Amino acid sequence: MTDLTVADPPAALQRRSHVNSDLQAQRVRSAWVFLAPTLLVLALVAGWPLVRTIYFSFTNASLTNLSGAEFIGFDNYLSWITLKSGRTIFRGLLADAAWWNAVWNTLKFTIVSVSIETVLGLVVALVLNVQFPGRGFVRAAILVPWAIPTIVSAKMWAWMLNDQFGILNDILLGLGLISQKVAWTANPDTAMIAVLIVDVWKTTPFMALLILAGLQMVPGDIYEAAKIDGVHPVRVFWRVTLPLIRPALMVAVIFRMLDALRIFDLIYVLTPNNAQTKTMSVLARENLFDFDKFAYGAAASTMLFLIIAAITVLYMWFGRVNVGGER
Amino acid sequence: MVATLAKRTAFYALVAGIIVIAVFPFYYAILTSLKSGTALFRVDYWPTQFSLANYTSVVSQGSFLRNLGNSLLVAGAVVAISLLLAVTAAYALGRVRFRGRSLLLLTILSVSMFPQIAVLAGLFELIRGIGIFNTPLALIFSYMIFTLPFTVWVLTTFMRDLPVEIEEAAIVDGASPWVVITRVFMPLMWPALVTTGLLAFIAAWNEFLFALTFTSSDVQRTVPVAIALLSGASNFEIPWGNIMAASVIVTVPLVVLVLIFQRRIISGLTAGGVKG
Question: Do A206 and B254 touch (CB under 8 A)?
Fold first, then answer.
């Protein structure tokens, strides 16, 4: 499926370019000219702000006084003072229970949501890989959750999950699965479940489509051969299909994982002010703009960036996913 | 015989289940948006009422139409600018061999994996510094961080796969690279441009974090922020009817686009591995 490697330009072009090195030099020059605007915009919108965020995390900047920020070293991350009584008091992000709660919430959300989405996405992809009348219709239907803005899906589900008038409680009561109405988004025990339900609903289609693209690359004669040999379909799935779609699956999982780790909007709208679902992004933004602890929020943002970078590197290392780079 | 029938029934039950789960929340939002008064607070599975009261109320009060205009303006500008930049960049990355090309591509791709929150503090300073805070420009500028890497990536892949002969003929005729891009490649790239443009449009239309942070007044907001902040007289009077009507208004154009361009979108999604 996703051919994420970009090969060299066609060989014929290279060969002839060597004949005329002037032409090649001119091409390279114009290539840089063409790249310059894009690189400039990316440097301005991504590179510079990232550097500034990291810088702010080492200062005492506040929302109202960004320019007067003074360098204070690692104090936003961790600092300690020893009292006369011999007691040591730790302060800073790394000693903040709220931060570790957010880290734990984010990891829990990421692992559970991506696992469920992978399994369900695989099921939907396997269904869509079968030729049947109305397949196009199903494919169109599963694109609907993907296309709906996250904020809108959060609101739609908030209404369906409403404790008094929500349809989900009505259905579950009707089926006898619950004995009384559940306040899904407000109750600390169910808030994370509510977030997971909405996220799984919204992003499983993306997973399914990526996996489907991988499934469609598997040559049909492999299945024919397995059928003739009388291999059980379940065995075919585990031994043939799954290993063959592994690269596609890995890419889909890593994209979803990176996305889940930075989740913000769904939680901000669906379960605001709920400690059970507060993620790293929500905590960082809250400190930056709501609590007037700009530098502290910048430190949280920097930590989130480092955590995501570390997880990406680890995952690519162990999974040997070749995203980009050379063949 | 019975076994295959059972299997087929189970398969179609699964298919039906997938469709219902995928579409039901949107269906229910439409259903709710068409109810008014006390009917809103009664659970119905089928349409019982057809009232446009919620729609007229959401459009007439507040700045919802203005917000729709903002969203349209921002998303349209983001698509135009990122396609313009990406086409030239993709030509350089896809057709010309030079040192550091792979590293550049990898860098551009890694930008799209950035958590947006990591640049939020720095972007906030920059946007306030150049005086575009609380204007559509702030959003058009900041959205480049997720649309540009993705469009460059997909268009590079597409350009690389075009045959070499078409370019050679133009070069032999003495065409400059700019002429090659505009006269030779552009006409061939319409399908890829439509796909990436659509995906960039949807991403910009749906964005929330930057829109929430970089605008501060009601009239400058985009629709996702407007919907998120739509509230009643008090916390206990959430105007569900209005919220559902606004949600339907925002979503219907997207759903229509997606259904029309279904195949293109799927190929674009799988080619770019873009986030949803």
Answer: no
